[in-house]
Structures are given as C-alpha cells and as structure tokens.
Design a protein that fits this description.
Number of strands: 20
Strand order of the largest sheet: 14-15-16-13-12-17-18
Bound molecules: adenosine-5'-diphosphate
Structural class: alpha/beta
Strand content: 15-25%
Helix content: 25-40%
Largest sheet: 7 strands, mixed
Length: about 475
C-alpha cells in the first residue's frame, strides 16, 4: 500500500470508520511547508464515550482468549507494520517532519515493541504461594486491568502508541487511543494495521479531535480503568487530577531535562558522537534529548569546539529530502520557543558559537545551535528546550556535576562520559534519573524499561516490566480442601 492509503481521514470505533458527529474536522499540516496534508475528524466527548463503550464491549471476549491467540494476532500486527514500513515511514515524515531515516527507525521500533509484547503475552505468570493453612491454597494471577485510554504526543506518533497498544493487547485489555492533533495519521494507521492483522473490532479504537474533551471523557468515564499518557508534565498533572475521581491506574511518561556530563577522562570522540545523537535526533524534540551539556574544565574548550564543528556540518532540510539530518520543528510555536530561549541565554551572557536563530528555509526550520558559557540563571537550564539548541555549562568537580545534574524537578534520562569504572558506578548511582546512559547517547530499546522519576512520571514502558501497568494482581484463596 502507498502512504496515501494509510492517510485515514476518519476515526475508528468498534470496527467502523466514521466522521465526527457534527462533521467538524481539523487540518493536518506538513511542518516542512505549512501546506495542508488533509483533515481528520474533530471528535469530542460523545464520540469518545462511544469508543469507550465499544472497547468495553470487546473486552470480555478479548481478555478470555488464550494468551497464545493474542500473541499470534500481535505477531500479525508486527508483520503488517513491516510489510507496510515504507508507506508508514512516508506518512510519518510528511506529518511529523523527521528525516526518512529516523522515521524508518521509528516504524521499525514500533514493530519491535509489538513483537516483544507478542512474546511477553505468553509469560504473564502468576504465583502459587505456600499456604499458612493446611486446607487452603493461595493462587495469585494477573488480570487485564480493563479498558485503557492511551494519549500520545506528536514527536513519536507511531512508536509511542506501540509501547501502549502492545502491552495493553498482550495483557488482554482493550484500548481507546488519542493521538496528537499535529500527527494524527500515524495514530489512525494503527487502526488500519489492526484490521489487516485480524484483531477483532472494538479491541483498538482511535479517536482524534479536541484534547480537552477526549481527555476529559477518558479520565472521568468509569468504564476506563487505566490511563497511559506520554506528553508534557503540565498535561500529565491535569490528567492525574481528572482521573482521581474514578481512581484510575495511571502511567505517565512526562517531560525531561536531560544532563549530559563529559568528564576530563572521557573519550572525546565518543562523547561528541553521543552528544550529537542525544541532542539532535528529531531536531531535539524528544523527551530524552540532552537539555544541558556539562563539560569539565580540562576538556571543556575542546568539547565545545568539536561539538560546534559537528553541529555546523548538520544538513537541515525537509524530512523527505535525501541527506537531511535535521528536519523542521513541529510548528511555529516550537520555533518561537527556541528563539525566546536563545534570546534569554544571550541576554544573560551566553555565547552563540553556531546557529542561533530561524533557518533561511523559513516556516518551522531552526538552525542547529550551540551556546557556550551557559549558566544556571538562563531559562534553558530549567525549561525543556525541545529543539536543536545545545547549551554547554562548565564545571570543576564530580560532586558539582552530580549536584547540578540533579538540580531539576525532572528525572527522565541522563548521560555521562568517563573512562573511570569507579566513577561510572559512583555517578550513575547518584544520578536521580530513570534512564542512565554511560558512554552512550542512544539507549532506547524495546527490551529495556523506559520511564522516569520525580516529575518525569512513573511506570516503565517496554521490557518485562512493561506489562505490569496493564494488569491487576488477583489473590484467590481456595478453601475447604479437606487436606
Ligand atoms: P507536547 O508538548 O508534546 O505537545 P502535550 O502534553 O501538550 O505535549 O500533548 C501530548 C498529548 O496530550 C497530545 O495528544 C495532546 O493533544 C494531549 N493533550 C493536551 N492537553 C490535554 C488535555 N487537557 N487532556 C487530555 N489530553 C491532552
């Protein structure tokens, strides 16, 4: 199939493709040009309620299927993704802007997550606990939590849903997904892929439209038993508060403020290579992207020089153009934010070494930027930059680096480079983060747990822990056995 066949302009409820009730639509724009790609329904609370009811109606049959059957259907889903990879890649690049090579990586990761959870579906083991009573036995089983509401952002519109749909379906849950309005097609494509895979109607429903209305219904409807969210900390807090009324299980993958520490004893080549990947992937728009580079005194100047040289060489262009490494930012609001952060940094003594403003390509392109002499009073020390701007701070001691790295309400990913094994353990144990890269700038994989601490959220996605958030633990006591 071609990418246009995956560009579904309808929502998917209970196996049907439909418009919004009043026929209202939202426009989807190409971030590289500002041109309209198409529209999607602007659904609200009413359509969402219907989607929840469809998911609830499908729950009994789906959850009672043997795990091996659910696993087989998830394997079909992974195969459907791979069979249509190039179409999904083009769709993703057109609506999100990232270079084709990165989109290919993301869609590949989506298939990998689904494949992983197809395997894990068959390993949802319980326990038999030694009984304190002679005539009773104690069983512990893991039960699907129920209908899951999944809300995802625009930066990884395919793989963020894979991490939620995979474990939910594997555990026997059904799903109502709400993709971000900037990138709804990669979300709606999941419903098309589920159809191809033969997943029963109602198991996966996808609704686009008003975030407030859809989010409001998902968090307050008693039929929804769990919310899984990836996005900003502020929206995460709103959802937590809204879900309190019906005591929903929650998992939250929220913002980050990743430090990247380069010690004097680091391998500089490796550190620069890792820095480029950890900073500039997806034009700096990932929650694990480096926000603050800390370079130790002895290596500081060499690091700034090498980082600047590599940054200057980055090729900016439309995601669809061959050779592009840095695509556009998602929209003008994102560009304005990057601009404001650079202005604030320069007003407070920051030195722009590379870039520093909008790119000559216009619209939502921003120059890859390095700012030296960064300091704690700058907004970019505290705010999630979410753009291709790399501030470098200088530090003297290990103690200072760890303290400054931890001086944030966030705790998602962090990185550091050292060739001292003792320091590697010492520092990684003291960093208050859910994900630590030691001499590595890219660490995401479906086999390892991804998740934060502090205001970066809670819950792990991927890995053997990824199913825990989608099950409840049931204790069954069997008595009167006459033993
Ligand atoms: P980002 O800054 O990455 O866009 P957001 O937290 O604003 O992060 O958005 C992530 C997802 O949350 C998107 O799908 C967005 O539409 C959705 N969203 C935003 N506001 C709300 C809300 N009040 N209730 C539910 N979902 C919301």
């Amino acid at each position: 199939m071609s990418w246009t066949e995956f560009k579904r302009e309808e929502i998917h409820l209970g196996g049907q493709w439909l418009g919004a009730d009043g026929g209202k639509t939202l426009e989807v724009l190409d971030p590289a040009t500002g041109e309209r790609i198409g529209t999607v329904p602007e659904a609200g609370a009413v359509e969402t309620r219907r989607a929840i009811e469809a998911a609830h109606a499908a729950l009994g049959e789906w959850s009672r299927r043997p795990a091996a059957e659910r696993a087989a259907l998830l394997r079909n889903l992974a195969a459907a993704i791979l069979a249509n990879q190039e179409a999904l890649v083009e769709l993703l690049t057109r609506e999100q802007g990232k270079p084709l090579a990165e989109a290919r990586g993301e869609v590949g990761m989506s298939a990998a997550y689904i494949q992983w959870f197809a395997e894990e579906a068959r390993r949802l083991y319980g326990d038999v606990i030694p009984s304190p009573w002679r005539d009773r036995r104690i069983l512990v089983t893991k039960e699907p939590i129920g209908v899951v509401g999944a809300i995802t952002p625009w930066n990884f519109p395919s793989s963020m849903l894979a991490r939620k749909i995979g474990p939910a379906l594997a555990a026997g849950c059904t799903v109502v997904a709400k993709p971000a309005s900037q990138t709804p097609y990669s979300g709606l494509a999941w419903a098309a892929l589920a159809e191809i895979a033969g997943i029963p109607s109602g198991v996966l429903n996808v609704v686009t439209g008003s975030a407030r209305e859809i989010g409001g219904e998902l968090t307050s409807n008693p039929l929804v038993r769990k919310i899984t969210f990836t996005g900003s900390t502020s929206v995460g807090k709103t959802l937590l508060a809204q879900g309190a009324g019906t005591v929903k299980k929650m998992s939250m993958e929220l913002g980050g403020n990743a430090p990247f520490i380069v010690f004097d004893d680091a391998d500089l080549d490796r550190a620069v290579q890792g820095a480029m990947a950890a900073k500039f992937r997806n034009a700096g728009q990932t929650c694990v992207c480096t926000n603050r580079f800390y370079a130790q005194d002895g290596i500081h100047d060499a690091f700034v020089e090498r980082l600047s040289e590599a940054t200057r060489a980055l090729r900016v262009g439309a995601g669809l153009d061959a050779g592009t490494v840095i695509g556009p930012m998602i929209d003008d609001k994102a560009v304005a934010k990057a601009e404001a952060l650079v202005a604030d940094a320069t007003a407070k003594g920051g030195r722009v070494v590379v870039g520093g403003g909008r790119h000559e390509r216009g619209f939502s392109f921003f120059q890859p930027t390095v700012i030296a002499d960064a300091s704690n009073d700058m907004e970019l020390a505290r705010e999630e930059i979410f753009g291709p701007v790399a501030p470098v701070f200088r530090f003297r001691t290990e103690e200072e680096a760890v303290e400054r790295a931890n001086d944030t309400e966030f705790g998602l990913a962090c990185y550091f480079y050292t060739n001292d094994l003792g320091r590697a353990f010492r520092v990684s144990e003291r960093l208050q983060y859910g994900i630590v890269g030691v001499n590595e700038g890219l660490v995401t994989t479906e086999v390892a747990p991804f998740g934060g601490v502090k205001e970066s959220g809670f819950g792990s996605e991927g890995s053997k822990y990824g199913l825990d958030d989608y099950v409840s633990v049931k204790y069954t006591c069997i008595g009167g056995l006459g033993l």
